[in-house]
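Recall the central idea of this unit: under ordinary conditions, the amino acid sequence of a chain determines the structure it adopts. In this exercise we apply that idea directly, starting from the sequence alone.
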Amino acid sequence: MNKERGVLLAVIACTSGICLTLASAKVAQTLDSQPNPATATASQARAVSPPAVHHILIEVSDLGKAIQFYEGGLGFTVMSNSGGFATLKGKTVDIYLSVGHHAWEKERSAAGQPGQGMYPHVLTDDVPALVAKLKAAGYRIVDEPRTYSWGVEAFAADPDGYVWAIVSMHE
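Accordingly, the structure predicted from this sequence is:
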C-alpha cells in the first residue's frame, strides 16, 4: 500500500504542473460557461428560488377554541388534530396549532400581547363580510375594515389574542 501510495505521490509530484494547468484550463472553461454575477440577467442570476412560507406555528391556550376561530372563523380546513397539536390547510400557507411550547422559549405572561409586531395577513374577496362573520361568532375585531389605495384591511384577534390582518386587494 505504501509503495503504491509512494508511486502515486511521485507521479503527482512529477506531473503537478501539468495537472494544475489542466485543472486551471478546465476551471476557466467552466467559468466561461457560467453567467457572470455582475453582468447576468435576472433569470440567469436566479440560481436559487426564493423561499416559500410553509406554515405558521401558533402556540394556543385552548386548542378547541383556536380551531373554532381558524376553521369556523377564517375558513382554514382541519387536516389533523391529536395530542394537543392540529394542522390546518390554507390556500397558500398552513397553520399549525400547539398547546405546548419549545423548551428554549420562556413562558408567556398573561399580560403580554402575543405576536405583537407580527401580523399575518389573510387574503379574502370580501373583508366586511368576513369581519361580520367573525363578529357574529364573538371574536374581537381590533380594527374595522378600512379602504386604502391598494385594497381593504381589517384586524381581528384569535382567542389567544394573536392579531390577524384580513385584506382584499383592488384589481
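The longest strand covers residues 141-147.
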